[in-house]
Amino acid sequence: GSLVAAVLAHSGRLDKEHLGARVGRLSRRGEVCTMINKKYGEFLPSLQSAEELVLQVEGLSSTIDLLRAGIENEVQRDLNVAVDEFTELKQQLERDTLILSVLKKLQEFDIAVKEHKTALLEKKYIAAAQQLEKARSSLRSLETRKGFELKILRALGTELTVQTQNMLCHLGEEWQKLIVWQLPPSKESSLEAVVHSELHLHTVPSKEEEVSSPPVVSVLQAFAILGELHSRLKAFGQFLLKYILKPLVSYPSLQPLTEEQPDVFILRFKSKESTWEQSSPMEVFDKIKLIFEALHKYLLNVPLEQPGEDRKVTLAELLGDLIWEELSNCLVQNCLVNSIPTNSSKLEQYTEVIKSTEEFEKALKNMQVLKGDSTDLLKYARNVNSHFASKKCQDVIAAARNLMTSEIHNTVKITPDSCVALPQLPHPGSGDHLKMQKPSNLLHNGTVNWENESKLSQNTFSLPTCRISSSVEQLMELVYQTLMEATVSTDQCCVQLFYSIRRIFQLFYEVVPTYHKESLQKFPQLAAIHHNNCMFLAHHLLTLGHQFCYHTTHLLSNGAASFVDLVPAFRRLGMECFKAQMRVQKGEILERLSSARNFSNMDDEENFHAANKAIRQVLHQLKRLGQVWQDVLPVNVYCKAMGTLLNTALAEIVTRIVALEDISAEDADRLYSLCRIMVEEGPQVFTPLPEEEKNKKYQEEVPVYVQKWMTFKELMIILQANLQEIVDQWADGKGPLAAEFSAAEVKSLIRALFQNTERRAAALAKIK
Predict the structure, then answer these.
(1) Where is the Centromere/kinetochore protein zw10 middle domain (predicted)?
(2) 123 Rama class: left (phi>0) / alpha (psi -120 to 50) / beta
(3) Which of 3, 296, 352, 751 is the most exposed place for a label (fewest CB within 10 A)?
(4) Whole-angstrom Cα distance, residue 589 to residue 619?
(5) Mean pLDDT of the chain
(6) CA atoms within 13 A on the CB side of 45
(7) 129 and 276: one domain?
């Protein structure tokens, strides 16, 4: 109350209105203070307890700090020492364990080597080999330990190598005792050497060995364990191929002989006379089967455990893997290839070869020499149709090439009366098979004699009389025979043979011009024969496909079997060759005429002699060509060729004379005499036929083949005519002279022949 009164007295400035509210608030504050005092009284014991706890905690903290300091100073040091000691003991334990394991491996190695030596002395080769492998395994284990190297390992490796080689030496000696090859001094596998070769197998088991393991099993299994069996078998297989199997395939007269004695099996050979150059597949298979049966009985039926394989394999399987591929190739190349028929009629007989091949492979499979999936030999035999077609095509192309490279000058004569002699082909669609006959006289003109059809005209598809190479005749005979073969062959073979014929013609197109290039350029007769050959082939190519298209496979019967596309190429080939020869002859003619001194100043004896000599040389050349082409070229080709060459000479002479600026009367007479020689003797070079009487017809037709003949005769008239006769020959541009010479050429001749007079001027005025 006193506090309130003091406050009120001090705050007298307060309004009386607010005095009541403030009194109320002060009353509530008093209550609060009372509660605070009460709570303080309750809190004070708790505070005292907390302070006591704080003092206790501080004491514990001091104790902990003392303990931590003791641990860090003493216990941690002792702990580090203990860890170091533990680590050292652990490492020492690991080293001791490693040393113990190494010593154990060394002990194993030593025991294995000792047991190996003991077993080797007792000739227990399998046990000896196994102990060597144990020693090798122990040594390999020692060598693979990282961070641990012993100098003794190198010595141990050397010891192991020595023991291995020592054992291989012993096994090799045993192998040589078991398998004995008696070979001649010569290393060649000739027939004489093979006859003196023998194979002795000392693998015949005795009664004691029948109970225990035979030596051959022990030796081979030891080789297998040591990893040397493959190399030994490979060497044995190569000897077997070289001295036994391949000779039996190559030499028909070689016969194998077997002999069994109490302790050895002997394989030798004998040679008997044989009329066959090649053995039949059946005989070869029987011989080889006999060899494998003997080897299987005495050697190859040995079961062996191969390292890394669960099952046992026989020696026959291993040897078969090593030699079968080479043996199969030898049988194919030296036996089956030669047995492929050369004629389709013999294909049916080839079933015996296929059956024999099947039996041969079956026998080898039973002996485990051949695996079940190895049928290369049988596949080749069964694919006989394809091989027959390939062989036939090769033979045909080889024969054709030989004909193409033979001499061209050996010729035969063909005439329009020549005809084809072919076997009767069945009617298209009849289904009959063609009966093969050998064509007797080969076709020359492509006319086929169809007995069931009306005959064609005699001159239809005929060639004119000429000469062709006998080799080309034989080539076409080969072509027809091959196409006849194709008509009775399988579809595949028919197609192959057909395209082989196309290759023959393509080969001719490429080979003949190249192979005979020098001769064709040098000799006119050979060029003419080659021209005829090409025309002869082109002639037959026109109808060759049509003659057989209805008798070939459906693949070719729809128009594909045609050779017409080759006709232009062959015609062009023949013409280009002959044209090249014509250019050579033209060049020689012009070269000879170039020595005539332009036919000028004929009043000079030297000039006249040179011109006369040139004329004579040209005529001699033409006569020589006429002789070498006589009875070779067809008459029409002969006449055109000779006419072209004679025309070249006449045209050159006319050109040279027309170009003269001055021709005296004596020059004109001598030029006329030279021209008369050409006119009189020129037709005589036309001798296409051997019969002189028949040649007169072609000699009279010289103007037909020599374009400048009438020009040349008109030139002769001018050389002997006067001005009026020349004007009359011109006849205002309508006479014979105007038909051969131009107005400028006639005027030039008049100016050269006649002096400049009023008559010459008048004559020149009329030439226009």
Answers:
(1) 171-404
(2) left
(3) 3
(4) 9
(5) 82
(6) 4
(7) no
Please say if the pLDDT value at position 1 is more than 70: no
Instruction: Let me know: does 443 contact 419? Beta carbons within 8 Å.
Output: yes
Burial of 701 (0-12, 13-18, 19+ CB in 10 A): middle
Query: Environment class of residue 153 by beta-carbon count within 10 Å: exposed (0-12), middle (13-18) or buried (19+)?
Result: middle
| CB-count exposure of residue 350 (10 Å: 0-12, 13-18, 19+) | buried
3-state secondary structure 8-50: HHHCCCCCHHHHHHHHHHHHHHHHHHHHHHHHHHHHHHHHHHH
Q: How many CB atoms lie within 10 A of CB 494?
A: 26
SS3 assignment, position 654: helix
Q: 410 in a domain, yes or no? A: no
Q: Which residue has the tokens 């006479």?
A: 735
pLDDT digits (tens, 9 = 90+) for 162-204: 888 888 898 888 888 888 888 877 766 677 777 888 888 887 6
Q: Tell whether 140 and 271 lie within a shared domain.
A: no
Shared-domain flag, residues 164 and 205: no
Residue 620 lies in a domain: no
Which tens digits make up the pLDDT trace of 79-106? 888 888 888 888 888 777 777 877 787 8
Q: What is the pLDDT of residue 410?
A: 92
- By CB atoms closer than 10 A (0-12, 13-18, 19+), residue 74 is exposed
Enter the pTM of the model. 0.66
Whether residues 305 and 208 share a domain: the answer is yes
Residue 335 belongs to a domain: yes
350: containing domain: 183-373
Same domain, 213 and 355: yes
The number of distinct structural domains making up the chain is 3
Question: Do 93 and 154 sit in the same domain of this protein?
Answer: yes
CA-to-CA separations, 523 to 403, 517, 622, 624, in angstroms, rounded:
20, 10, 14, 12
Residue type, 17: E
Q: Give CA angle at 712 (706, 717), nearest 5°.
A: 145
Whether residue 437 lies inside any domain: the answer is no
